UniProtKB/TrEMBL annotation:
<keyword id="KW-0547">Nucleotide-binding</keyword>
<dbReference type="Pfam" id="PF00005">
    <property type="entry name" value="ABC_tran"/>
</dbReference>
<feature type="domain" description="ABC transporter">
    <location>
        <begin position="5"/>
        <end position="230"/>
    </location>
</feature>
<dbReference type="GO" id="GO:0016887">
    <property type="term" value="F:ATP hydrolysis activity"/>
</dbReference>
<keyword id="KW-0813">Transport</keyword>
<protein>
    <submittedName>
        <fullName>Sodium ABC transporter ATP-binding protein</fullName>
    </submittedName>
</protein>
<keyword id="KW-0067">ATP-binding</keyword>
<dbReference type="InterPro" id="IPR027417">
    <property type="entry name" value="P-loop_NTPase"/>
</dbReference>
<dbReference type="GO" id="GO:0005524">
    <property type="term" value="F:ATP binding"/>
</dbReference>
<dbReference type="InterPro" id="IPR003593">
    <property type="entry name" value="AAA+_ATPase"/>
</dbReference>
<dbReference type="InterPro" id="IPR003439">
    <property type="entry name" value="ABC_transporter-like_ATP-bd"/>
</dbReference>
<dbReference type="InterPro" id="IPR051782">
    <property type="entry name" value="ABC_Transporter_VariousFunc"/>
</dbReference>
Amino acid sequence: METVLEIKGLCKSYGDFELRNLNLSLEKGTLTGFIGPNGAGKTTTIKSILNMIAPDAGTIRVLGMDSVSGDLEIKSKLGIVLDDGHFYEDLTLKKMKNLIAPMYPVWNEGAYQSYMEKFSLPEEKKIKDLSRGMRMKYALVLALSHEAELFILDEPTSGLDPLVRSELIEILKDIVLEENKTVLMSTHITSDLDKIADYLFFLFDGQIILQGQKDEMKEGHAVVKGDASALPPDYENYFVGISKSAYGFEGLTDKKAALKKLLPVNTVYEVPTIEDIMLYYIRRHK
C-alpha cells in the first residue's frame, strides 16, 4: 500500500520532556489512532509533522515529500483539525471560507456547499457562536472542500457530549471509507478509536511503547479474571499487569494460550478495550 506519512528517528527535547527516536508510518485509506496520556508527546509530534517546530533529529516525509522543503505543497493537501480551532472568532462561516478558499490551489465550492448542508452548518453564523462540535464539523468541511489527502486531528472529540462525538466518529468513518482519505487522530478518548481505528500507536513519556493493527492487538491480548490461589508461582511472567485482592485477580495478558493450559477452566477471558490495553501498559512502564 501507498505510504502517506513516514517518520523516522524523530527526537525533540523541551526541558524535562524528551521525544525519543519516534518511528511511525501511515498507509493510504486508513485511520490511525495516536494515543497516550496528556504530556506523552502527541502534540509535539503533530507540530513536528506540520513543520510548526523543528525536531532535534529525524526525518518526516508527508505525501512523499520532505516536511520542510515541501512545506507549502504539503499544507495544501492536508486537512488539519486542531484542538483550539484557529479561526477568527468575529467572522461568519461564509466570510471565513471566503478568506481561506483562495489560499488553496484546489477548491471545490460544490463540495463545500454540499457538506455545509449535510452537517447542518449555518453560513451566516459567527465562529464565536458555534458549539465545539460545530467547530469540528466546520474544520472538516473546509478540509474536504480543498480535497485534502491526509487529515491530522488533534483531540477532535475532547469535550463533546456523547451524541455529537458519535456523529463526528461517523463522519470520520465516511471520510476514510467513502473518500479513501487517510486520518491520523490524536486522542486520549480511546473508546472512539475502538469503533473506527485501523492501526494504533501508543505513546508514553516520549516513546512509542506499543503499535500495530487494532484488531490484531485486541485479539492478541485478554483481560483475565479468576481465583488468585490458582496462579502459578511465576504468574507475573504471563501478564502485562495484574492486580490481586481477597476476591481474586484481574490482569492483562499477551500470553492467553499459555495461561489457558495453566489456569482452571472457570477462569474468565475477556476481549480488552483499547483503554484496558493502554492503561495496563502505562502502569507497567511507570
